[in-house]
Fold each of these.
Amino acid sequence: MTGEAGTGSSGDVPVPGTATRHVVVMGVSGSGKTTVAVGISAATGLLFAEADEFHPESNVALMRDGVPLEDAHRWPWLRELASWMAGRAAEGVSTVLACSALKRSYRDVLRQGPPSVEFVFLHGSAEVIRERMSRRTGHYMPASLLDSQLATLEPPGADEHVLTLDVAATPEDLVTAAVDGLDLNRIVAD
C-alpha cells in the first residue's frame, strides 16, 4: 500500500526548489521509530510518513505470518520511499520518515531520493525493545521477528554521520534530542 501519510504541516506554502530537510528515524521494530518521528513532525512541521504503509500487501502478509522479509522484498519498497522523499523535496516540503533502514545498503537506497537524508538511529538493548513490543497492540510485526531484525541490523558506521540515541530515554527526551541534535529548531524559526 502506498501511503501519503501526514501529521506535520508548517502552515507555510512550500516553495519548490528551496532547501528541504529529510530525516529518517531508523531502528528495529519496537524501538520507537514512529513515536519519535511523529514527535519530530509535531515539533518542527516536517511531513510525517510511516514506511510500513508503503509495503505492498504481500510483504505485510509475510510479516504478519512471522516470516522475515528478504532483500528482494525490500528493494522495491525502499525505492518507493526514496521516490516519495524526492517528490516532496521537489515540492519544497521537508519530511520525517519512520523506517527500519536496517542495513547500510538500505540506507544508501534512501539516500538516492532527495538531495540529502539525515538519520536518527534508535538503539538499545533487545530486552527493552522486546518488552515494548509485547505491550503494543494492533501492529502486524510480531515480537518473534525482533531476533531476525537484530541479526539483520548493520549499525551505522562513523562515516554515515548518523545521530544515535538510546531507546531507554523517554519518547519526549528522544524527540528533543533528535530536534536539537539535527538542529531542526531552525525549521520552526524559518
Amino acid sequence: MEAPPTGKPMRADALRNYERIIASARQAFAEQGPDAPLEDIARRTGVGIGTLYRHFPNRDVLIEAVYRSSIEELSARAHELLQKLSPAEAFEQWLREQVQWVMANRSLATTLKAGMDHGSPTFTLCRSVITEASTALLEAAQGAGAIRADIEPRDLLRFGHGIGVACETTPEAAERLLAVTLDGLRVAPGSATRS
C-alpha cells in the first residue's frame, strides 16, 4: 500500500499505523457497513482514537482512504495476474475477482460516491488506475485472439459491476452469470476475431 496522498513523507511507525487502520476499517466496513464505529476500528487496530483521528480527521476521509486502497489493490491484481497466467486466464480470473470486489464493497462505494465530487482527486485516481488495469488485461487478451475485438475497457468494468450488483443478494448466481458473459466475450474457436 502506498503512503497517503498528502505529499508529506511519514515516519515508518506512522505509516504502519496508517496501513493497519485502513486494514481494520476495511474489515469493519465489510462486516458492519460504512457506519461502523470509529472507536471499534481503533480498538481493532490496537491504537487510540486520537491516533486514528490524526490520520483520518473524519469518517469520510477514512472511507475515501479505504476505497482508494481497495481500488489500488484490485488494479494491481490485474498486473499480477498478467505476469502469472496466460492473457485469457488473467482476463477471466480478474473479471471474477472484480465481481467479488463489487459484491463485497458496494455499500462502501455507494456511500463514497454519493458524497464525493466526481472531479475529486480520489475519484480521478480510482477511475484512472482501474481503467488502466482493465485496459492492460483486455489488450493482452485481445492480442492473444482470446477476446472479441469490439469490447472496450469500460465494457469490462460494466460487466463486472453489473454481475456484482445483480448477485449481491444471490452470490451463488455469480459464477453462472460470469460463465454466460465470458462465453459471449470469447472469440469462438476457428473463427476470426470479431470487430
Amino acid sequence: MVIAPLERGLAGLDRLGLPLQAGHPVIADYVRHQLIVLVPAGTGHHCEIPGSRVLRDGKWLLIPADTHGTAAATWLSRPHPHTPRLIDAHRLREALLHSDSSLGTGARSLE
C-alpha cells in the first residue's frame, strides 16, 4: 500500500500501535513524500481509500538495499528475515480513517 502524505501514513501506523522493530515492512519515500506499507497479497483492496493506492501486479517497488537507506528512501521498520509480519489492510484502513477524522487531515491525490 502507498499512503500519502507520509505524515498521514505515520499517524495511521501510530494508531495501530505497531512497534517499528517488530518486523513489519514499512518504507518512507522522502522524494514522493509517501509511506509504503506491505500488506498480505490480495488484501490491498480493503485499504483503497482516498490518499492510498495498491501496488498491482506488474509494478516495481524499489527498496532500500541496506539498513541505512538513503536521503530518498529508508526502512522505518525492516522486515523480519524469515517471516515478515505484514500489516492487516482492513486494520490499516480503519486506522487511517480514524486518524483523518481526529486530525482533520485530508488525503491528497496519488496520481
Amino acid sequence: MMRALLAAIGFLTRIPVPAYALSGLSSPSSQLAWYPAVGLLIGGVLACIAWLLSSAAPLLAAALLLVAWVALTGGLHLDGLADMADAWVGGLGDRERTLAIMKDPRSGPMGVAAVVLVLLLKFAALASLAHPATALWLAPLLGRAVLTAAFMTTPYVRSGGLGSVLLGASRKACVISVTVALVVALCAGGAGLRAVIATLVVLGCWRWSCLHRLGGMTGDTCGALTELTEAAVLVVLALG
C-alpha cells in the first residue's frame, strides 16, 4: 500500500521518493487509486507556500505560486496538453494522424498557445482570489481524481503508452478513491460544490471529444485533462 502511494508520488511529482518504490512495485496499476491523495499532497504544499507569500503583492504571489506548481509537477501534464492541442488541430479529424502527431516530441504553435493560455488562466485566477488556500488544494485534488475516473470509464487506445501500466487497476479501490476525493471536496461547502461541477463538466466534454476523435484516450490526453480541470476549478472559484 505504502509502496503504491510512493510510486504515485514519484510519477506525478518531483518530490524525491525511495528508488525501490518505483522499481519494486509488483502491480504498477495499484498506484492509480492513490492519485487523488497525491493531488491533495500537492495542494497542501501549495497552500503552505501561499501562506508564506501572504504578505506579498497579489500578482507576485500568484506568479510564484504558479512557478512552484509547475516545478512541483515537473510540467508533466503541460506536455500532454501541448501534444493534445497540436494533434486535435493538426490531425484534421483523422484518428491515425492525430495519434501520430501526439507521438511527435516537438510542440507546434497550437500546443504552445494552449500551454500559455492555460497558465494565463491559472495565473489570473490565483491573482483574483483573496484567499487562495481552498482553491489551491481543491484544484490538484480534483485534477488527479479525474485521472482515476478517466481510467475507470474510458478505453486506453495507445498500445505500450505511458499510461498502459495503469490498466488493470482495482476498480473497487479506484471507486473508493474517487468517492473519498469528491466527499473531501464537498467538505469545502459551496466552493467545493462549484469545483466538483466544473470538474464533471470538463470530464464529460473531454471524454466525448476523446471518444469521438480516437475511440478512447492516451497518456497525453490524460495530461490535458488534468490541466484543463485545474484551470476550470481555479476560474470557477475566482468567479464565485
